[in-house]
Design brief:
Elements (H helix, E strand, L loop, with lengths): L1 E6 L4 E8 L2 E9 H9 L8 E6 L9 H16 L4 E6 H9 L6 H11 L3 H4 L16 H15 L1
Helix pairs in contact: 1-2, 3-4, 3-6, 4-6
């Protein structure tokens, strides 16, 4: 199953394509471009779209969170007719790290460990690993993809 996972933001969103253990397309683009790609080119490279969903923990939030919620809805609608799912960050934390207290660095390390450690997973420019070039919010998108893939098994 080819998964295209999206870590949405209020203005830009990160994405990662995952097929088995192979990381394909990845990057971060303005939301308007992501929406167009979901409706066009990405329909041909994904069997399922998985979008990270926002959850309320009772704390006040700002405009950015609400803007992100709007984009989640737009992306979710754009994925039709493909299979689609929403995945909460807490599910990623528990699945990958075994704790709700996990931070981004813990999730990144768990993903690197899944691919055999830093030297094998990331490698270097001369000898790149499977995760070479993944950076910033793309790690969150990869966490969405891996959690969905492994929870579906």
């Amino acid at each position: 199953m080819k998964i295209l996972a999206i870590d949405p933001g209020s203005e830009e969103s990160a994405f990662v394509q995952l097929y088995k253990s192979h990381v394909g397309l990845h990057g971060k683009l303005p939301n308007e471009e992501v929406e167009v790609l979901i409706c066009t080119e990405w329909q041909y490279i994904a069997d399922v779209f998985v979008i990270e969903m926002i959850a309320s923990y009772g704390m006040p939030v700002g405009r950015e969170v609400f803007d992100t919620c709007v984009w989640i809805g737009r992306f979710y609608a754009a994925t039709l007719p493909k299979e689609r799912a929403l995945l909460y960050r807490r599910d990623e934390k528990i699945f990958l790290c075994g704790s709700m207290k996990a931070k981004d660095a813990n999730i990144r390390q768990a993903l690197i460990d899944m691919w055999g450690g830093k030297e094998k997973a990331i490698g270097n420019k001369k000898d790149p690993g499977e995760l070479y070039g993944i950076h910033a919010d793309e790690w969150a998108a990869l966490a969405v993809a891996v959690t969905f893939r492994d929870m579906e098994r």
